[in-house]
Amino acid sequence: MLYTIAKFIITAGLIVLISEISKRNTSLAALLASLPLVSVLAMLWLYIDTKDAVKVADLANNILWLFIPSVAFFLVLPILLKKGLDFYLSMGIASSITAGCYFLMLVILARYGIKL
């Protein structure tokens, strides 16, 4: 139980740290947020929990494929915000478009025999 709490604190702490840094320096916060720190932590926790390098490799591979549609969010959100749309509406639209891109990616991958 203590291990699970430690994982939670470290992972959540990273998000809070980036959020706090972004109040002072958005470039530094963006750099930290763009690093695959959460993915690295997830792979680390998975390996510590299972000692299964194949599962870690599968996770890394799946993250690679699913990273591609996530780019849509970072393209759409700033465009909507700069056009003056409400923040929450922009987040909703960007999230919906991203969800559609995830679905499309899964369909495309399945068509080529790649299963995640």
Folded structure, characterized:
- By secondary structure, the protein is an all-alpha fold.
- The protein has a domain at 52-116.
- Helices cover 87% and strands 0% of the residues.
- Helix 1 (2-24) packs antiparallel against helix 2 (26-34), helix 3 (37-50) runs antiparallel to helix 4 (53-82) and helix 4 crosses helix 5.
- The longest helix is centred in the middle third of the chain and has 30 residues, at 53-82.
- The relative contact order is 0.07.
How large is the count of helical segments? 5
Specify the structural class.
Answer: mainly alpha
The parts where pLDDT drops under 50 for at least 5 residues are none
Rounded average pLDDT = 94
Ends apart, CA distance between termini: 30 Å
Q: What is the H-and-E element order?
A: HHHHH
**What overall form do the CA principal axes indicate?**
flat
Major sheet summary line: none
The number of distinct β-strands equals: 0
Radius of gyration: 17 Å
**Can you give the helix content as a percent range?**
over 70%
How much of the polypeptide forms β-strand, as a percent range? under 5%
